[in-house]
Amino acid sequence: MPEPMDRGSAPADQPQSAERGPALARAALDAALARRSPRQRAWSRGDTGSVGNPQRRGRRGYTAPGPDPRDPQPLAAVLGKLVKARGWQRPKAEATVFGAWERVVGAEIAAHSRPVKLDRGELTVEAESTAWATQLRLLSGRMLANIGKEIGRNVVTRLHIHGPAAPSWSHGQRRVRGRGPRDTYG
User: Label partner for 141 (CA 20 to 30 A): which of 65, 71, 121, 165?
Assistant: First the structure.
């Protein structure tokens, strides 16, 4: 007849209390690690070797100290890379002429003129008066040098400067030749 068991004692086929704690957990972990495939073992060691994809290894875990391509990047750096990759350097330089006109030609000239059109290296500039148009024609060499220094050479090769545009009285498809309204602008 079997002996009755105490609640505190373990049967003979069960591990002793010393083996039930951390040692039992370690034995279970070792057994689970032994059952894993070679590919899983390579990933856990961080060694891809010929097994696995080395590109995916960097996506797991923490990065090391220092710069990493996954770190947040300044917007200017990202846009600079995009402009260079797409070949947008020339359109960017041309847009800078219009966007940063005051910085390119100076505050005083920018206050009295504005760029209108850039076509095949010829920049059309409209002055606020005919006097300023004459003055800008005299300064065109210096303006081209400033534009070349700020934006880059061969973006703007010629300047076409004109005064303010007169009002147009021609509306519609048909026009009648003549001098226009004589009592106002005659």
Answer: 165
The answer, as to whether pTM is greater than 0.70, is no
163 or 178, which is more confident?
163
Judging by DSSP bridges, how do beta strands 158-162 and 113-119 pair with one another? unpaired
Domain count of the chain?
2
What is the secondary structure of 52-79 as a DSSP string? S-HHHHTTSSPPPSS--TTS---HHHHH
The tokens describing 142, both together, are 């210096």
Is residue 52 very low, low, confident or very high in pLDDT (cuts 50, 70, 90)?
very low
- Residue 21 domain flag: yes
Quick one: 100 and 50 in the same domain?
A: no
- Among 82, 146, 81, 71, which residue's Cα sits nearest to residue 110? 146
- Does residue 118 contact residue 156 with C-beta atoms inside 8 Å? yes
The mean pLDDT of the chain is 77
Do 51 and 113 have their domain in common? no
Residue 110, token pair as written in the block: 């920018």
